[in-house]
Design brief:
about 325 residues; alpha+beta; 9-stranded mixed beta sheet; two-stranded antiparallel sheet; 15 strands; about 25% helix
Length: about 325
């Protein structure tokens, strides 16, 4: 434990609470297919679109990997170290563990090496070990702001997949997509868990950049280039470890048009997404003043919760 304490001291570990909200625009794409429902876009019983937190974390990991960061949980199509499993990647780092190797050392070294371990956490169950790392980043299931329309298109392939006279059955298929939708992702970074894993202020910057650029280098058949984009990131930095106000109150600040015909919205501006400025005053939340900004209404105050409204890429 002494080694872990020393390690924390030399790191500029996050020491304040962070909350964030991310808006995502989807146009003629499948944001997250459900494997138990023929890969149809996920939706709840009321027709609101969903993107699982696991899918969002996968995209964040991919962006970190694009940024040159060390990642433990790599998708099969992005393996760049020759390790085809988590077990092999663990063994490549630690070798065969000796009896003298303490769980605390494995915890510390895993967090030091892999950004996703110190960010999201990890359960290490290799070589008869059972070590739980609880990460500081929590991300919610994404939900669309209004019910989405899911379309199914029948597609055909111009050649058979196997030898057969005429067309074989594998030349036919279906493609599912959401016509239009705006989804909201909510998340936070807990500085108490950051202290345990060594999640630093530099790591926070990497998270922020990954969120802004979530769909860069993410195109696929289900998500053609430009069909999904981050529109805005609302980034709240509190002035203490516990935060100025609760995450629940932060999330309630998001306002948007809720009209009877909102199912007919076809562009982002139709929703008029904004923050409740009256509530912001009540909670002492102010917009962060960026260098060179001449807006006199915006001022930095170290005692206030600061919010940035950042355009996505």
């Amino acid at each position: 434990m002494e080694e872990i304490k020393k390690w924390k001291k030399i790191k500029k570990v996050l020491n304040k609470k962070i909350d964030f909200m991310l808006t995502i625009e989807v146009r003629n794409a499948n944001p997250n297919g459900d494997p138990l429902n023929g890969n149809m876009p996920r939706a709840d019983y009321d027709g609101y679109g969903e993107i699982s937190d696991v899918a969002i974390k996968r995209k964040i990991r991919n962006r970190w990997q694009d940024m040159g960061k060390e990642i433990f949980v790599k998708s099969n199509d992005r393996i760049d170290d020759g390790m085809r499993s988590l077990e092999k990647r663990f063994e490549n780092k630690f070798g065969k563990l000796s009896k003298e190797k303490k769980d605390e050392e494995i915890y510390r070294e895993s967090c030091e090496k892999w950004l996703d371990v110190r960010g999201f956490g990890q359960v290490i169950t290799f070589q008869k070990k059972a070590i739980g790392v609880r990460g500081p980043i929590s991300i919610s299931l994404a939900k669309s702001l209004s019910p989405v329309t899911i379309q199914t298109m029948q597609i055909t392939r111009s050649t058979n997949g196997m030898e057969k006279d005429g067309k074989s059955s594998d030349t036919m298929g279906n493609k599912h997509f959401v016509e239009y939708g705006v989804y909201i992702v909510k998340g936070s970074v807990n500085c108490f868990f950051a202290e345990k894993t060594g999640f630093t202020e530099e790591d926070v910057k990497d998270l922020k950049e990954a969120l802004k650029t979530l769909f860069v280098n993410d195109a696929s058949s289900a998500r053609p280039e430009g069909s999904m984009s981050v529109k805005e990131l609302f980034w709240f930095e509190h002035n203490s470890k516990l935060g100025k106000v609760s995450a629940a109150k932060i999330y309630e600040l998001l306002k948007y048009n809720k009209e009877e015909n909102m199912g007919m919205f076809t562009k982002y501006s139709d929703y008029n997404i904004r923050l409740d400025e009256e509530k912001m005053k009540e909670y002492d939340i102010v917009y962060r003043k960026i260098e060179g900004d001449d807006n006199e209404k915006i001022e930095n105050n170290k005692d206030s919760c600061m919010v940035e409204r950042i355009e996505g890429i």
